[in-house]
Structure to design on (634 residues):
């Protein structure tokens, strides 16, 4: 129990020193994690070492890297606990000193047990005040001791067990400090402002205690969301493989007429491996240059799954393109969409002068796409996805310190989502809208998209069968038709899926739109902005 | 079926082993810094629960760091041993091949 003398004689600056030491340690652990990635695993991969031993060595290196990552989260939390204790105790000590000085000024003295004498009504008031301050210090002492007791790493707890332990510890801390996940604002601008007001300690605790909420919240900084989502993903781990899962790949081809059952078993196994597959893809990007790094801005592993992944950092890029994929895209099939956005980013970056990395692209699978069935002709997937897209783009804007150039790009049914979002409410906060292979945007013409028509662009391959009468019947006028009123850019690719193929006019024209080089966009019809 | 790919680079393994060793030294240094700052709280905050909890915390993290130091050292040693094995295998193979008479 803290006594009057304990608080009076306490050197609270030692808590500040400890907090600073732990912040530095957390940073050092992150630097060590990067070195394990760059120098160890990266060094081995770059050298071309290949074979079973190489695979094992890289896997072991990544496990140690994961250990440093895990401990850096925990070190952040320890630092936050010391910071919080310091913040509270120096103020209490200051109030205690003021009370002692006040007693002296009034000709009273304070005994070593905190009682003010000689006895009088005023002396009792000061005694009560001092007792209250000491009581508050005692509560802080207990809270800090309880918090620190949670943060000692358990022997050998690494990997999924370690992440689970961290999750439980952070949850315990959040309880101790009264943090609640429903206090995170849902409005993107409010979320950005709220995050900016938090202390480092509070940010670290919110991130570790509620990673799924922080990772998904539009308006928070990209690096924060990425870190939170990776933490949330690490906690998922890979569930134990059941006998059925193990047999699925072998049984599927044997099931013949029962192919649906076979494919169900395979997809069940695929879902089981989703967290690890996604983490592997993200971690592989860490061996690439910084501007090609992947940032995980949202995910959901249920049903078909969702994922929002940026290539490059949209918070710092001058130009950002948000790509909305079309029907039948699931979390298990996003590889091709990410490749498209990588092609677009590289082509757009090539068109800009100055630093490498001034273009970021985002693969936004933030909605439940329709399957290759009748649902693709209906609007409910678009109507459900539109507000999500709107909020995501508002979040991109809110998280930035300076306005950037934002283009939203829709492929196939993705353009229907964009049309629905742009024509609703006050529209989308983007500078340009581009669509390719659109079956219609659920509007009659460009005016309904609430943006200067010269900033709406559509491309369509001659043999793209998704656009055409079927699309028109389902989703209205097609944006590449002259009567729609948008610019039609030249497409030299074939079919429905090659609009982002390298070394094509289709890709180059979209890249020029993304970086605002409107004069460089080759048009079939329309008028580019000057 | 094609045999699994095999490419050996003993020089790179030795280089990475050296990097891991440097990393291990840096880790030990930073772990020591934080250990000191945490353990020293007992003096300025004698009698406080948080000071005792800090001591326990320092011990737990010290043990953890010792374990990780062991992993890093084992990893370094494994890479060096692997590089050495590759070189020895190459030498032995060269000697075996040299047993055959030169065709002239």
């Amino acid at each position: 129990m803290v006594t009057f003398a304990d608080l009076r004689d306490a050197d609270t600056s030692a808590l500040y020193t400890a907090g600073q030491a732990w912040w530095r340690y957390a940073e050092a652990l992150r630097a060590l994690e990067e070195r394990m990635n760059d120098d160890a695993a990266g060094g081995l991969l770059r050298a071309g070492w290949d074979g079973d031993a190489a695979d094992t060595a890289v896997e072991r290196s990544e496990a140690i890297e994961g250990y440093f990552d895990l401990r850096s989260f925990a070190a952040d939390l320890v630092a936050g606990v010391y910071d919080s204790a310091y913040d509270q105790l120096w103020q209490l000590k200051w109030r205690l000193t003021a009370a002692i000085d006040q007693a002296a000024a009034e000709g009273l003295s304070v005994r070593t047990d905190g009682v003010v004498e000689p006895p009088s009504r005023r002396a009792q008031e000061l005694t009560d005040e001092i007792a209250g301050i000491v009581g508050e210090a005692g509560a802080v002492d207990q809270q800090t001791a309880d918090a620190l007791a949670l943060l000692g790493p358990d022997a050998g707890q690494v990997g999924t067990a370690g992440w689970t332990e961290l999750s439980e510890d952070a949850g315990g801390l959040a309880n101790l400090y009264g943090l609640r996940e429903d206090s995170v604002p849902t409005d993107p601008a409010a979320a950005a402002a709220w995050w900016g007001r938090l202390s480092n300690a509070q940010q670290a605790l919110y991130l570790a205690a509620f990673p799924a909420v922080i990772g998904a919240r539009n308006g928070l900084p990209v690096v924060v969301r990425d870190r939170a989502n990776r933490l949330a993903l690490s906690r998922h781990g890979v569930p134990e493989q059941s006998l059925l899962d193990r047999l699925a790949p072998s049984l599927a081809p044997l099931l013949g007429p029962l192919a649906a059952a076979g494919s169900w078993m395979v997809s069940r196994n695929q879902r089981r491996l989703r967290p690890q597959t996604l983490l592997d893809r993200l971690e592989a990007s860490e061996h690439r240059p910084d501007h090609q790094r992947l940032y995980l801005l949202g995910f959901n592993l249920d049903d078909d799954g969702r994922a929002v992944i940026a290539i490059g950092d949209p918070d710092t890029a001058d130009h950002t393109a948000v790509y909305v994929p079309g029907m039948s895209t699931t979390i298990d099939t996003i590889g091709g969409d990410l490749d498209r956005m990588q092609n677009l980013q590289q082509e757009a970056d090539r068109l800009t002068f100055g630093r490498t990395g001034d273009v970021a692209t985002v693969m936004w699978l933030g909605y439940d796409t329709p399957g290759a069935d009748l649902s693709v002709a209906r609007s409910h997937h678009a109507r459900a996805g539109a507000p999500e897209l709107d909020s995501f783009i508002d979040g991109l804007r809110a998280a930035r310190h300076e306005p950037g150039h934002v283009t939203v790009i829709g492929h196939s049914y993705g353009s229907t989502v964009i049309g629905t979002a742009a024509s609703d409410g006050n529209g989308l906060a983007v500078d340009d809208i581009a669509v390719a292979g659109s079956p219609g945007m659920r509007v009659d013409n460009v005016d309904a998209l609430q943006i200067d028509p010269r900033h709406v662009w559509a491309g369509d391959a001659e043999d793209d069968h998704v656009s055409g009468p079927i699309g028109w019947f389902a989703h209205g006028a097609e944006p590449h038709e002259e009567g729609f009123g948008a610019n039609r850019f030249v497409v030299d690719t074939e079919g429905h899926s090659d609009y982002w193929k390298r070394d094509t006019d289709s890709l180059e024209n979209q890249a020029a739109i993304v970086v605002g080089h409107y004069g460089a966009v080759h048009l079939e019809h329309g008028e580019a902005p000057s | 079926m094609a045999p699994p790919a095999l490419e050996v680079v003993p020089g790179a393994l030795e280089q990475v082993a050296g990097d891991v060793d440097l990393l291990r030294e840096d880790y030990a240094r930073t772990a020591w810094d934080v250990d000191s700052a945490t353990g020293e709280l007992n003096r300025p905050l004698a009698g406080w629960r948080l000071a005792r909890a800090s001591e326990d915390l320092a011990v737990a993290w010290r043990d953890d760091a010792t374990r990780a130091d062991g992993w890093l050292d084992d990893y370094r040693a494994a890479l060096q041993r692997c590089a050495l094995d590759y070189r020895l295998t190459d030498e032995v193979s060269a000697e075996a091949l040299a047993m055959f008479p030169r065709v002239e």
Observations:
- Chain B touches chain A through 51 residues (CB under 8 Å).
